[in-house]
């Protein structure tokens, strides 16, 4: 069944979709940014479609940050154990919520560090080159930080990335990776692969990869499978445990709405609960005996054993606020709305701009639509700048791609309509929604 059959290109139709949306009230639980230059325009919030770069601030976040500051003021060091939310175990406040959005058991997940730091920790422990089996498979379009991390891990072990890193790319003329091609590549190079590292959702195209199929293939060959879930966590309904992923890492400032520089997260499958981390720190030591200051490292079983130092309590507080909203809304309900909301934006763009834009994002996706403007690069960038001036906040990727993320927790169908209508106007096609 074609879901676009239920859509209409009128603004009144978008308003009707918002009226029927049971998740619509969550929008009021976030601070919505407003234009900074035009006082008249500032009466209405901007159309914010940039949650893939930085999620909006939950209104309750300031209360929780203030709570930490008050405890620091009143109790100082005693707040580690005497605060209403003791700092010593503060990271455990987010364990249950992270487990639910990651689709795993509580002991398989931990909030710690930053994304790339966690990726290095995971590769230090899981990437074990052994003779011919030493290569790491990544996508050719991997986020730069992932590529830098992989190449540095290879060099750290005396290997040359030019030969030890295996890249996989979409077919000529295509924008998304085919699952069959990924599986075939792993099968073909299984004798030389030690690690496969792929995204849950590809950052540029917005493609959601079939992690379960890839994990099955890796398991069949005894290859470790790691996932960069930065654009997947809080965006799609993950089942990292059931899919048998070995490890996953993510940041928390995108769809998890935890603020700039937020504490990141890490998943380690229960199969590896007793694996000793390659790089140890005291916060990963048995928490019952941590303050005995023993010389020998005794890691906590599960993901917590991979911790190095105590996390920033101030940076964790907004994550608590956001995960409370995820628990109320439910990740599956959010994913269902996301499919319909992003589908509506795609419908409008293809209805109004069939020749001017190319949709790069396949149907397997989350809350992201990557749109290539079929005009010369200078005109494409000018169109993006005019979108920003019109109050549409999206993301630019040179030379001609605009990434838009209609996030189901706080975006409306009217936001999709306004964005499509504005892009139609700035491209000067003469067509508008009406």
Short description:
35% of the residues lie in helices and 12% in strands.
Instruction: Specify the structural class.
Output: alpha/beta
The N- to C-terminal Cα distance equals 27 Å
The CATH class designation of the largest domain is Alpha Beta
CATH superfamily of the largest domain: Type I PLP-dependent aspartate aminotransferase-like (Major domain)
In the CATH scheme, what's the topology name of the largest domain? Aspartate Aminotransferase, domain 2
Q: Topology as H/E string?
A: HEHHHEHEHHEHEHEEEHHEEHEEEH
What number is the mean pLDDT?
95
Describe this structure in words.
This protein is of the alpha/beta class and 434 residues long. The protein folds into two domains: 125 residues, Alpha-Beta Complex (Aspartate Aminotransferase, domain 1); 265 residues, Type I PLP-dependent aspartate aminotransferase-like (Major domain) (Aspartate Aminotransferase, domain 2, 3-Layer(aba) Sandwich), CATH 3.40.640.10. The protein is built from 13 helices and 13 strands. A seven-stranded mixed beta sheet has the order 2-8-7-6-5-3-4, with helices on both faces. It has a four-stranded antiparallel beta sheet with strand order 9-10-13-12. A hairpin with a 3-residue loop joins strand 12 and strand 13. Helix 12 crosses helix 13. The longest helix is centred in the last third of the chain and has 22 residues. The chain is globular and about 70 Å long. The mean pLDDT is 95.
């Amino acid at each position: 069944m074609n879901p676009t059959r239920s859509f209409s290109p009128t603004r009144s139709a978008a308003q009707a979709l918002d009226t029927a949306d049971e998740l619509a009230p969550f929008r009021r639980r976030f601070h919505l940014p407003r234009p900074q230059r035009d006082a008249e325009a500032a009466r209405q919030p901007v159309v914010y479609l940039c949650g893939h770069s930085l999620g909006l601030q939950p209104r309750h976040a300031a209360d929780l940050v203030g709570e930490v500051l008050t405890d620091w003021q009143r109790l100082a060091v005693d707040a580690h154990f005497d605060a209403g939310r003791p700092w010593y175990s503060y990271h455990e406040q987010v364990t249950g919520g992270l487990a639910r959005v990651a689709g795993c058991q509580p002991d398989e997940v931990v909030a710690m560090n930053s994304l790339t730091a966690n990726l290095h920790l995971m590769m230090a422990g899981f990437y074990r080159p052994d003779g011919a089996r030493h290569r790491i498979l990544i996508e050719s379009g991997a986020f730069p930080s992932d590529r830098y991390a992989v190449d540095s891990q290879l060099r750290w072990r005396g290997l040359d990335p030019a030969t030890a890193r295996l890249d996989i790319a979409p077919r000529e003329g295509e924008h998304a990776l085919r699952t069959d091609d990924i599986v075939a590549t792993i099968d073909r190079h299984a004798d030389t692969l030690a690690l496969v590292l792929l995204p849950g959702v590809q950052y540029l195209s917005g493609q959601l990869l079939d992690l379960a199929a890839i994990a099955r293939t890796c398991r069949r060959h005894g290859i470790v499978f790691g996932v960069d879930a930065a654009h997947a966590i809080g965006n799609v309904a993950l089942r990292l445990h059931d899919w048998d992923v070995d490890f996953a890492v993510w940041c928390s400032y995108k769809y998890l709405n935890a603020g700039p520089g937020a504490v990141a997260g890490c998943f380690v499958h229960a199969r590896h609960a007793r694996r000793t981390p390659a790089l140890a720190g005291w916060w990963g030591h048995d928490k019952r005996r941590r303050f005995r200051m023993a010389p020998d490292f005794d890691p906590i079983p599960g993901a917590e054993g991979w911790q190095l130092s105590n996390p920033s309590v101030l940076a964790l507080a907004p994550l608590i606020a956001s995960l409370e909203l995820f628990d109320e809304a439910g990740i599956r309900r959010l994913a269902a709305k996301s499919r319909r909301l992003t589908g509506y934006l795609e419908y409008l763009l293809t209805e109004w701009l069939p020749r001017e834009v190319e949709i790069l994002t396949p149907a397997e996706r989350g809350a992201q639509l990557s749109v290539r403007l079929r005009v010369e690069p200078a005109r494409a960038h000018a169109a993006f700048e005019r979108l920003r001036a019109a109050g549409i906040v999206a993301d630019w990727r040179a030379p001609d791609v605009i990434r838009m993320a209609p996030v189901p927790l706080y975006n409306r169908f009217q936001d999709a309509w306004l964005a499509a209508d504005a892009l139609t106007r700035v491209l000067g096609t003469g067509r508008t929604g009406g």
